Amino acid sequence: MEQSVPVxxxxxxxxxxxxxxxxxxxxxxxxxxxxxxxxxxxGAGKSTLMSILFGLYQPDEGEIRVNGKAVKIDxxxxxxxxxxxxxxxxxxxxxxxxxxxxxxLGVEPVRGLSIHLKQANEKVRELSARYGLKVDPLVxxxxxxxxxxxxxxxxxxxxxxxxxxxxxxxxxxxxVQEIQELMQILRQLAGEGKxxxxxxxxxxxxxxxxxxxxxxxxxxxxxxxxxxETSESQLAEMMVGRRVSFDVNKEKREPGPVVLEVENLxxxxxxxxxxxxxxxxxxxxxxxxxxxxxxxxNGQHELVEALAGLRPAIxxxxxxxxxxxxxxxxxxxxxxxxxxxxxxxxxxxxxLDFTLSENMVLGSxxxxxxxxxxxxxxxxxxxxxxxLVADFDVRSAGVHSRARSLSGGNQQKAIIAxxxxxxxxxxxxxxxxxxxxxxxxxxxxERLLQARSEGKAILLISYELDELYKLSDRIQVISGGRIMxxxxxxxxxxDDKIGLMMAGQASNDQGGGAA
Amino acid sequence: xxxxxxxxxxTLVFSAALIFxxxxxxxxxxxxxxxxxxxxMMTAGAFTAAIGTYYVQEAGGSGASPWIxxxxxxxxGTLFALLHAYAxxxxxxxxxxxxxxxxxxxxxVTLYLVKFxxxxxxxxxxxxxxxxxxxxxxxxxIPFIGQAFFNNYPTTYLAYxxxxxxxxxxxxxxxxxxxxxxxxxxxxxxTVGINVTKYRYIGVLISGALAGLGGATIVLTxxxxxxxxxxxxxxxxxxxxxxxxxxxxxxxxxxxxxxxMAQAVRIFITQFEFAAHIPNxxxxxxxxxxxxxxxxxxVGSVRxxxxxxxxxxxxxx
Lengths: 515, 317
Hints:
The complex is a heterodimer. In chain A, 32% of the residues lie in helices and 25% in strands. Chain A is of the alpha/beta class. In chain A, a hairpin with a 2-residue loop joins strand 23 and strand 24 (482-487). In chain A, helix 15 (408-420) runs parallel beside helix 16 (438-453). By secondary structure, chain B is mainly alpha-helical. Chain B has helices at residues 2-30, 38-58, 65-90, 95-117, 145-149, 154-172, 174-184, 186-191, 196-223, 234-244, 249-268, 280-298, and strands spanning 134-135, 151-152. Chain A binds chain B through residues 54, 56, 75-78, 80, 86, 88, 90, 92-97, 101-102, 105-108, 110, 113-115, 156, 160, and chain B through 168, 172-174, 177-178, 180-181, 184-185, 187-194, 306, 314, 317.
């Protein structure tokens, strides 16, 4: 197999966007039947490269060869014709269509002028049986789970006769069990002779399933290694460009009095008339990090909004430092000691077209300090911003540069600086490291642990189990708006137990109220 | 019973134009483009049908003249739709604003042309010949049903054909599946090689053609000429019928029938004595009041195509 012509060769691919070189002379080859991981940090250029292979972008330089022949891929249609299929990170599925309709879209079997639906359903059943991808062709996509939707995406490519499959961050939206199933599917597809490119930044998955890894950093290939001959720490080092410490120093600490007490909180907004948050009770004490695990969309957003006072509670009670804040507006809660690091830093964390200075005093409750006589005290504000920027190492072209011009990591640092500087009692952090590179992640983790040492209570909501294990004192799992149970991270990682709870099974020792 | 049959009969006269325009709206919105410009496209269709028919008659053509007028109306609607498609799909302008502009533009241009062509007159001359009611042999003899449904204008029969035809196109053919995919999730369509721009153009152009047909129908069956108030909001009522009918051709037929009846009642009621005590203005208001009520009751609870109203930006795929 080693000697045969690679199914795909990318030779010297360069792609420039205004201001950056996304791909700089990248070469890569994919062999038949192999799982080739493409590893790199956010913004390293992985997705751009694969978009080029799938015909969504045109390279400025370089050549693509499929089965040894140079090709020009000028659209998704052409890529499909060449046997290339892509499973996108954000599924490309039409929600009100059935599974079969989604799969045949664009290549519909016809009888006369009509779509031959019977034949479509039959073919989908056949394919799904052959590859062990269980789906029902007749149900609507809007009614099936995320894991199932991903199988539909895979079937879409197989239906079009794809021999080369690109998976773009396929595990980002899956539960632990679904990830295991996907790994199984990947191995089976490779076993059938399909060649697979797996885009990811998760080292564990690479070690588990891939044959070779190509590492990309800042648009350039750092190297290609055999998975069997490497280790997670070597890969991390190649990805980041320096040694990475996976350990954090979490000092032992006895938590103090209760800061946040949530009792039986119920929030409207679930699908089909259910409650998005359904009777959740939480307690977080001083100097304690409570991690909340769960698959995206299980009530986390609504819970956070209810805590912040952005969404009304229809039942239950929220107390901050013993005072009932359930009916208080957001501002009063901030004054009572609430700080939040929102999930979408660009939408909810910063006003992108404001300067860094202005963003630093957004929502500030110290009116007299920054405002006077109906005007902003610019000097005072700038001095304050400069201090924060220095303390939190926010790199920018100055406090008068627009928040938009900062990198993601520096935007996040700015938000953390603003929120922590208010000396809150409770910090609600949602996905605080989403989309950050390893250096920035380390910084955020350090700061959260430091805040913990200072006696702040922290609610950490994350979809990354590793992050939760690393930082949390306790981990609770939310599914369908209910708390399914609790795990003690001190007792070691227990993915299976958390995975089951994430999938909606209440843990035995907790009982929970789940069906 | 005979009275009810008559009411249904004249309801269908008024409904036909609404059915055409609302069906047009179905194609456009199913492809992901709001068409607030239906009113303007109907206006353009009505005007062009009126002058097309008029000049053919002036030139000595008679029997075929309404048919030629009808084709002119379809053409004019399509032309305005081309403008709409270019602005919303190619240039990605705000769909609502473009629609409003189309409405204002169509009314202004047609009124200007009427004054220009007919020496300052406010409306076009009355046509000598328009469509006439024709009974369908056999079917028209069925008691009640015959009088209610099969003794009507050719345009009404055309509506009978276009409703199931549209439903077939949308829900049974590859074309329809792709058009709907483009309206629900253009990124999904694009990544399987479907040309989003092409399908949106087709959707908008069909809507213009059908709205033009609707405008022409009003001239050639009810008003016999074109004036500033020939359409007077029927394009908006068609949008209401589109929503009330849940973007489905059969639903649209039912909704348009309902709104058509509101117009028919105005004439129907005059045969009763009590009608003399109801101010005319109230009867004229009826279709619009019903539209408001229906939209207030229904709009919040129905969901149109997900991507309708949003220009497709491949970089946000």
